Amino acid sequence: MCPLLLFRWPLLLLLFCHTLSAQKLKPGFDHIELRELMQLSVYQIDTPWTNILYPQPANYQLAYRSPEMALDNRWDLWQRKDSVAVISIRGTTGNAESWLENFYAGMVPAIHQLTLANGKTFKYQLAADSGAFVHVGWTIALAYLQESVVEQINSNYKNGNKEFLIVGHSQGGAIACLLTSYLHYERGKKIPTDVIIKTYATAAPKPGNLKYAYDYDFITRDGWAFRVVNASDWVPEVPFAIQTLNDLNPVNPFANISSLMSRTRGPQKWVTKSVIRKMNRAVRKSERKFRKFLGKRVGFLVRRSLPGTPKYQYVRSMNYVPCGTPIILMPNAAYRQKYPDDPNRIFRHHFFGPYFFLLDTYYPRKG
């Protein structure tokens, strides 16, 4: 071996180790990291910041706030002192347009394109599997937000900052998941390949179907994306999920039920075949109704609110599931005493107060 090459090996190893140690974001759940991100999420609420109950972390500075766009969406960019940037996505507001976005729950393919109200075409990939589907309302939000997000990522990258945390609460959490998927598949195209992304979605509803969730959990495996859930919060349980035989993988015992039943003799054959047929017919009917109301009818209201938005075609699925490594905040007796169930306060378990309470219960602050 060349003596010069032998000399270079220790130097290369030293440079490699320095690169690893220089990276600020690490995989795995970090409750201090989460608490700080939740404190930043609070600043998405449009109240005077002097009334905020959870103070801004000392090592963060607001660097950019996007204009409001589409169905009342917005995002902030915060800079941490160590050059890590935070993309904070606003959740549902009190405006009707923001609620329409949530109820606009027809599903569209995760690899697709949407024509927007401004005439632009948004081509996107949010999963590798053509059987992955996502929530159309939050995908519209992503379509409008992503352009300025990409601009800010590339601007930060030019300044030597390539590590990003993504956070969103409630609706913002669902959009945070979709944005994470979008940026993953834009590596090497719209953003550099070595951009590092870590995501926390708090109190987030379900953004897509099972195949989308599989993909999301795969691309963020080994500790790069988390969903944080108060077990008493109903928002992470929606949208409603309906699973039909069409939502199963192609190879399954129900794919060719007639062939399977041909091996069965007597009354058992006809009873089993009839039961399966009736069950599938019932869930398919429910799926069509949900698609009709949460897709077509809410879509009509969205087009009135966002003129120029065309009619979209929805896939025949409503099989919504959550995604991300779960961090479950389980209510205990102290929580129940402070936040008892109240049917007149449907968001009692959804706001930041209950989430901070449970986070501090299971992951106490030091000092």
Tell me what you see in this structure.
The chain is α/β, with parallel strands linked by helices and 367 residues long. The protein has one domain (26-362): Alpha/Beta hydrolase fold, catalytic domain (Rossmann fold), CATH 3.40.50.1820. It has helices spanning 3-22, 31-42, 96-103, 136-158, 171-185, 210-219, 257-261, 267-305, 333-338, 352-362, and strands at 60-65, 75-80, 85-89, 107-109, 111-115, 121-125, 133-135, 163-169, 196-202, 208-209, 225-230, 320-321, 325-329. Strands 1-2-3-8-9-11-13 form a 7-stranded mixed sheet, sandwiched between helices. A hairpin with a 4-residue loop joins strand 2 and strand 3 (85-89). The longest helix has 39 residues, at 267-305. The protein is globular and about 75 Å long.
Short description:
By secondary structure, the protein is of the alpha/beta class.
CA distance, first residue to last residue: 55 Å
Judged by helices, strands and strand pairing, the structural class is alpha/beta
Tally the structural domains.
1
**Rough outline:** globular
Q: Strand count, sense and closure of the main sheet?
A: 7 strands, mixed
What's the CATH class label? Alpha Beta
**CATH level-two architecture:** 3-Layer(aba) Sandwich
Q: Trace the largest sheet across and list its strands.
A: 1-2-3-8-9-11-13
Q: Spell the H/E element sequence.
A: HHEEEHEEEEHEHEEHEHHEEHH
Number of helices: 10
Quaternary: single chain
- Please tell me the overall pLDDT: 91
| Fourth-tier CATH superfamily name | Alpha/Beta hydrolase fold, catalytic domain
